[in-house]
From TrEMBL:
Subcellular location: Mitochondrion inner membrane
Gene that this polypeptide is encoded by: LOC108561253
InterPro entries, per database record: NADH_UbQ_OxRdtase_su10 (IPR019377), NDUFB10 (IPR039993)
Principal subcellular localisation of the protein: mitochondrion
Family: Belongs to the complex I NDUFB10 subunit family.
Organism annotation: Nicrophorus vespilloides
Lineage: Eukaryota, Metazoa, Ecdysozoa, Arthropoda, Hexapoda
UniProt KW keywords: Electron transport, Membrane, Mitochondrion, Mitochondrion inner membrane, Respiratory chain, Transport
Protein name: NADH dehydrogenase [ubiquinone] 1 beta subcomplex subunit 10
Length: 161
């Protein structure tokens, strides 16, 4: 719909001023910004991987903050994966009602493995944890496994010669 002609000099002045102010903005938006935008659905947004906490220097606050945000995003993704696996197992149990113990064995194993791995990484950290606490947990677990063997297998026995 074409713009109506101004009825008087005041409207003509304001239309001219609007064209002078809005024209360059519209030009830049249509010719530069929109052709260079990446179009993707908001739910498939891809974040670049940032350095992990062990790659950050002690005094690099920006790197630490980015690593913390990446850790939180990773935790949300792993929570959703666990939720999907749990729903798959529940659906399998409902569908295969009397024989679910045999027919849903693979789905249950997959869910239990994912749960174990989630707990190894995020379990026992408390409600308000960050990437540094998770990194320290990983470090302490590795030290324990070096000294005593895998967690849950009992402690190594001293070999007497």
């Amino acid at each position: 719909m074409p713009e109506a002609q101004p009825r008087n000099i005041v409207e003509q002045f304001f239309q001219t001023m609007r064209g002078m102010l809005e024209g360059p903005v519209v030009f830049v938006r249509e010719k530069i910004v929109e052709p260079n935008q990446q179009h993707y659905p908001w739910y498939h947004q891809k974040f670049r991987r940032v350095p992990t906490i062990d790659q950050c220097y002690n005094d690099d606050i920006v790197c630490y903050t980015e690593a913390n945000f990446q850790y939180k995003r990773d935790k949300q993704v792993e929570n959703e994966i666990l939720s999907i696996l749990r729903h798959r197992f529940e659906d399998c149990m409902m569908y295969e009602a009397p024989d679910h113990a045999e027919k849903c064995k693979d789905v249950l194993k997959q869910y239990e493995d994912a749960t174990t791995n989630w707990f190894i990484k995020y379990g026992d950290l408390g409600a308000y944890h960050n990437v540094k606490m998770a990194y320290m947990k990983q470090k302490h677990r590795m030290i324990w496994e070096r000294r005593h063997g895998p967690v849950g297998s009992g402690m190594k026995q001293e070999e007497n010669e």
